[in-house]
Amino acid sequence: MRRRAFSCLSVVLWLPNGLMGGQSAKADQTGGFLRYHVPLLAYAVLVLGVSSIPNLKSPDVPAFLPLDKVAHFVEYAVLAFLALRSVERLVRKCAVAWTFAFAAVFAVVDEYHQKFIPGRQFDVVDLVADLAGAAMALVLILIIRRRHSGATR
Length: 153
Hints:
Layout: H1 2-19, H2 32-51, H3 67-90, H4 95-113, H5 124-151
Helix pairs in contact: 2-3, 3-4, 3-5, 4-5
């Protein structure tokens, strides 16, 4: 347990070096940054941009169809997928855990910053939908990978 915690901690200390162009085991010098990291950065900017729209309202739909929560779920499922692609290019150990941690921190920051946008507020239920979407995406990716790796053996 200590060894795993230490290896994950070393990843955190090394991660900024990897993002700034340091060497890594999976470093792809020809377009790796554009292919794996820029989509995540662009999507994160898009998410924050949409979150910054004042007085943004959900479409009127029946109460049994919480379209707003479905949108949050899908939004963070996509974020988790893109983040995992990015994180795995930097580290291999604990990539899924670090991806979920990133998505969780990003969700909290996203919800918190809405407190300062007219007509918007911090919503714990939105945060739960965000985290559920990220978690579901990561679980599905792990299941698909496990089945795929089992099929190729």
